[in-house]
Design goal:
This protein is α+β, with helices and mostly antiparallel strands and about 200 residues long. About 15% of the residues lie in helices and about 35% in strands. The longest helix is centred in the first third of the chain and has 9 residues.
Length: about 200
């Protein structure tokens, strides 16, 4: 097959971002709840997000440093955040919270969502989500250049909240969860076309 080669040093503007986000798909969405030091809740989605350790459960999300991001300021100052799992039931509300609002606006309220108090940390959870995770920040690492670079926020889970109907012990029913993934631009996918492959011994 014919392939076009891109040398990253020769790309400009948003082209590296477009290639990266167009190829690494679908990406899970970290719908991050945070709070200002003055107690104003914030909610924003990040598709640069994943689980990077199982024990202790550790998650990362990566907000841009080159744009105004209240979430990054909040987690630097308060050191806590919630992860709210995005499914079909809340995808429209998730999209609404991607708008850039003033830092004194409660984005839970603006999106018509229920801000449920967390058990162990200050930022609230999205009550309408099937699952939520409370995290404390363990480190923040700046990567990339000042204009297009990001910060990588590491958070260690302290509490999981999972709808009973999803659970068999601590196993989560993937079909019932029906998480939503991010592709490129305005494109998303439902994680419902599932198949199994047995790992070799």
């Amino acid at each position: 097959m014919n392939k076009t080669q891109f040398t990253v040093a020769e790309l400009s503007g948003m082209d590296p971002y477009k290639l990266a986000t167009g190829l690494v798909v679908p990406r899970p969405i970290g719908w991050i709840g945070s709070i200002t030091a003055d107690g104003v809740p914030n909610l924003a989605p990040y598709s640069f997000f994943n689980c990077v350790s199982g024990n202790p459960p550790t998650f990362v999300f990566s907000p841009s440093r080159g744009m105004r991001k209240d979430t990054l300021a909040n987690v630097r100052e308060v050191g806590e955040f919630t992860i709210n799992i995005v499914t079909a039931e809340v995808v429209e509300a998730m999209n609404a919270t991607s708008a850039s609002l003033d830092s004194d606006v409660d984005e839970f309220e603006a999106a018509g969502l229920t801000a449920v108090p967390s058990a162990s940390i200050r930022p609230p959870m999205v009550g309408e989500c099937k699952a939520n995770i409370e995290c404390v920040v363990t480190q923040i690492v700046d990567v990339g250049d000042a204009k297009y670079g990001s910060a990588v926020v590491f958070g260690e889970a302290v509490e999981f909240h999972v709808a009973d109907h999803l659970l068999d012990g601590t196993r989560v029913d993937q079909a019932d969860l029906a998480a939503v993934g991010r592709h490129v631009g305005n494109t998303y996918s439902n994680a419902t076309d599932l198949f199994d492959i047995v790992r070799p011994e």
